[in-house]
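#help-structures
NK: newbie question, is this the right format to request a structure? protein is Arsenate reductase
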Amino acid sequence: MTDTITNVLVLCTGNSARSVLAEVLINALGEGKWRAYSAGSHPAGAVNPLTLAVLAEHGHAVEGLRSKSWDEFAVPSAPPMDLVITVCDNAAGEMCPIWPGHPSKLHVGFPDPAAATGSEAERLAVFRDIYRQIEAKIRRLIALGPERAAEV
């Protein structure tokens, strides 16, 4: 048994929905053995209110969540990452900074719930569905461990 913590950076373009959901889920499900952060290549500036609503529905704390640039994690003083996960196809295709420590990379794409249209109830249903999809992948990632992340 090891006390090593796996640091994960979850990336998306806007860092307002998918990457934030994944960050919170990794931290909640990782039982102290995983530490997640999220960021975006072009951060929206705020976490989507429906992201916060879905997280709160599932009992997650939402205080302190913010939309931030991936530049915060590309500096020498940033926490060293073991794994960088992209959750949107746009971020996966972008030229990423060089991450300190040269972490493993994984792409697991999900549709963008922030692009959903319709009534608030319809959009909330999309966010709930994406939450469930991300939760299933995060549970599998944690069960497999970082060394088998590519199998997610």
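mod (FA): yep, format's fine, and the tokens are attached above. The first strand starts at residue 6 and ends at 12.
NK: thank you!
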